[in-house]
Amino acid sequence: MGTHANAHIVWDWNGTLFHDNDAIIGATNAAFAELGLAPITLEQYRTLYCVPVPKFYERLLGRLPTDTEWELMDGVFHRYYAEHRVRCALTEGAEELLLGWRSAGHSQSLLSMYGHEELVPLVRGFGIEAHFLRVDGRTGPSGGSKAEHMVRHLEALAGVVAPERTVVIGDAADDAVAARHVGARAVLYSGGSHSRQSLEHVGVPVVDTLADAVAEAWRMAA
């Protein structure tokens, strides 16, 4: 499935295909509580969130967290998230869009900054793994950018996927940065970690539904 003539989508997971906003904000506030920070709302999170994640914490602390603080907050975040992600579901319409894109003869893959060992069984549990040429999660420390992971992801698909026919669909400015880094394009979805207002400054198309994202991806890659 897939040749250089075909359009390819690289999907993001958290906040894009996987609607986990509630687990994310709960885990964030659990991490903040470890440093005595007041909880924030989802709206505040979507306005302030940025990558690398320590810079997000800097916006709230007024300084970068120390290495010890970062390790503490990161550990709490991931423990809380792992406990509460089970209540989250795929974004509305996601499964149908994955099936439709694949049935049309196009290819797609999944690249997430969620840990690889946790990501793969989660994707498999939703019964959607077969739609993707590859499913790659983060390897190494958390908190960084997706750009270098995107390089490795597309290198693994070399000969099947061409960067110039590839569109990254994600919910964060970092998805657009990663796409630009490899010569691909990006469409950003406003229902995840960033507000529409913050995404509109990135310089790529911003949409409010995944269906619109797929339509835009086809237009861009055609």
UniProtKB/TrEMBL annotation:
GO biological process, one term: DNA repair
Alphabetized SUPFAM superfamilies for the sequence: HAD-like (SSF56784)
GO MF, any single term: phosphoglycolate phosphatase activity
Pfam families for this protein: Hydrolase (PF00702)
InterPro entries cross-referenced by the UniProt entry: HAD-like_hydrolase_sf, HAD-like_sf, HAD_sf, PGP-like_dom2
One cellular component term from this protein's GO annotations in UniProt: cytosol
Protein name listed in UniProt: Phosphatase
